[in-house]
Design brief:
Oligomer: single chain
CATH superfamily of one domain: Ribosomal protein L2, domain 3
Number of helices: 1
Strand content: 15-25%
CATH class of one domain: Few Secondary Structures
Number of strands: 13
CATH topology of one domain: Ribosomal protein L2, domain 3
Distance between the termini: 23 Å
Helix content: under 10%
Shape: globular
Radius of gyration: 21 Å
Order of helices and strands: EEEEEEEEEEEEHE
Length: 266
């Protein structure tokens, strides 16, 4: 079992009350109560921190007032106070500290923590909080330690190497923040026991081969049996695990994929 000593990173245990609310956890069920995503439910009660992923306050500098832990994500968040007094939570990069000042602007200096359109950055820049379309809000590279690399610029698009190793075309007028997400030690944590997974809202998983034929395509047989088919599939009959390609052949964004992500064992 291993963990992270958060005391060396965070500066306060009390979140900003105006930016915190209660919320209903996603427990893998639809509006009818039917389970649509397995292995989710329970876990410790959490408060929701309203993190700003639209980042639409342009040309107004903001200062980091605190570095805080967010139970709903793997990176650290910071309380940003803008020059006009407004406060928002933002996702921090790995070298951010209290007192640092950043800005969201088309003409911002190309320093870590500033946000600008991808087309204005130099090739080779590491970015996070990436938009996939202009003013669409940050969608990509948001987990602890993640970053995307700017590989090329051509014809109104940029080529970004995503954390999954996929190379993707993104409009040059989409915005991103320079740097990489904080808390890159998160991926080194070993939970160590089943109970710790339950605290996080992760319910147990049973191997398909240990189930009955009625419950899973891999189930049944006397003693331990092979799965009896060429490709591993899920309980729903879709390819899964072991390097299976699961992307739909006619997915709308296929035209933006320059190089597919690597699947299977890393």
């Amino acid at each position: 079992m291993s963990g992270i000593n958060y005391r060396q990173f965070i500066t306060t245990n009390d979140p900003e009350k105006s930016l915190v609310s209660g919320f209903k956890r996603g427990v893998g069920r639809n509006k009818s109560g039917k389970i649509t995503t397995r292995h989710k439910g329970g876990g410790h009660k959490r408060l929701y921190r309203d993190v700003d992923f639209t980042l639409d306050k342009y040309d107004v500098p903001f200062t980091i007032k605190s570095v805080e832990y967010d139970p709903n994500r793997s990176g650290f968040i910071g309380l940003a106070q803008y020059k006009d007094g407004e406060k928002r939570y933002v996702l921090l990069h790995n070298t951010a500290k209290v007192g640092d000042t950043f800005i969201t602007s088309e003409k911002a200096p190309q320093t870590v923590g500033n946000r600008m359109p991808l087309g204005n950055m130099v090739v080779g820049t590491f970015v996070y909080n990436v938009e996939f379309k202009h003013k669409g809000g940050a969608k990509g590279a948001r987990s602890g330690g993640d970053y995307a690399e700017l590989l090329a610029k051509d014809g109104g698009y940029v080529d970004l190497k995503m954390p999954s190793s996929e190379v993707r075309k993104i409009p040059a007028n989409a915005w991103a923040t320079i740097g990489e997400v904080s808390n890159n030690e998160n991926r080194l944590v070993n939970l160590g026991k089943a109970g710790r997974s339950r605290w996080l809202g992760v319910r147990p998983t049973v191997r398909g081969t240990a189930q009955n034929p009625v419950d899973h395509p891999h189930g049944g047989g006397e003693g331990r049996q092979g799965r009896g088919r060429r490709r591993a599939i899920s309980v729903y009959g879709k390819p899964t695990g072991k390097g299976q390609k699961s992307r739909r052949a006619k997915k709308y964004s296929n035209k933006f994929i320059v190089r597919r992500r690597k699947v299977g064992k890393k």
